[in-house]
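Good morning,

Both structures are done.
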Amino acid sequence: MLRWRGLDAVPGDLGRTVVTIGMYDGVHRGHQKLIGAAVARARALGRPCLLLTFDPHPAEVVRPGSHPAILTSLDRKAELVESLGVDAMCVLPFTQDLMRLSPESFTHTVLVSTLHASHVVVGENFTYGHRAAGTVATLTAEGRRFGFSVEGVGLASLADEAELTISSTYVRACVAAGDMASATAALGRPHRVDGVVVRGHRRGRQMGYPTANVESAPYTAIPSDGVYAGHFVLRDVEGASGARFPAAISVGTNPTFDGTRRTVEAHLIDWDGDLYGEHSGVEFASRLRGMLRFSGMDELVAAMDNDLVEARTVLGM
């Protein structure tokens, strides 16, 4: 998949495209439905499907200090949308200048002059332009003027709760609550935290449970404190996923040792080796228990022994 940051990096010979627009944070099942519609139209027209997204999250520019937790890094987002058939991804820096563009200026500058849209696919609640004044209706009218068609795709809901719309906000709430089953149902896969393995206090190795301490980017959506069953995924420097290992995962401040900094630490089950500096992802399948303060190391190790048994059961080992 081709990938660019900023309009200046878009190739001059791009040709006509089918464009879908959005943050696509999480690439959840609702996003997958929308992207599927865009890919299908692109294939029917014999044109590339281009996904237009933004960085940073517009909320941080519109209302500084309100940056939401981020479900997928740009690298992970690129990997996921490529797997759905997207041919190119353009990351548009969301700036004050972009925020002030009128809907018509955004359409002409971005969609027509640069991305050469012949068809645009968006969610039925899509808004754009200064003060979110543009809607699917205004985009459709602009499309008639500038020579592209528009498709508004209905929102997706959970199969067993038709009234509950799948959204990034909903998934963030599930992750924050440690409800990984609901997050998985909405995403269509386990929630993942990406980062780099850094050196910690090495207490896990002393207790017979070495862990990979994964340091993630600011604003990453990290589950509530507790112990989880899941998987540890190795990634290359470009973000592509590789080998995947079953793991017991700890999230929290290590209260038994009076810690103050939240960490994500994964113990790879039945594996030992040096992971420092590795780009990685931690997938959360199920929450086993909350984070507890133990009276000492012996009590903590006994709890970890039990955690490992439960993790094996959850992961079918």
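Second structure follows.
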Amino acid sequence: MGDRTGATGRARSDDDQGAAPGGLPSALPIVVGISGSSGALLGRRAVEVLGALARPVHLTYTPACRQVWPEEVGHPLDDDLALWRERYGVRICEPDDFRAPMSSGSFPTAGMIVIPCSMRTVSAIAYGTSSNLLERAADVTIKEGRRLVVVPREAPLSAIHLENLLRLARLGVRVVPPIPQFYTRPQSADEIIDRIARRAVAQLDIPEALPHSARWHGPTAP
């Protein structure tokens, strides 16, 4: 069943499990969740990085993401959703679609990244209170023992936030705060965003997401 778009123009889920561009056989999909926290450009770049690597992506978002997206990106979320479907074959799943494959542990994936991840979403994941598809998919990822990466976006962090993040870390979740790497001497905001997104994506056991200069090439000969 192909992609379907409702009368409002919002992308709806379909039964396509995703494929690499050009119809190439796909590996297990990566689940991408984008919350309503500030940092929409990080989520956008992460999708672009995975798409460029021809990694199949199943994507969902929170309702608040639709509000933040145009404020930070400059156009509606639907514009990017349509582009990602066409360019990368990304499967889009709506927040209330609990019939989507990612909501079930029987659907195999190569892990999940939540970028950016609001503190509300951090709390929901930490305590298993799944009120939308993103939170349910993260719950499934944890219970199935798969890699989960969260990119928390908040400052300053309260004791509540830190305790929730610690709870996730103890469950094996990779917590990757969006901290710029100033030692690389970035020349623009876009470069900072790219580096942060790539570093987070690489935590899904995708080292090729890192810039070539940032990869480990083994010990240097004396």
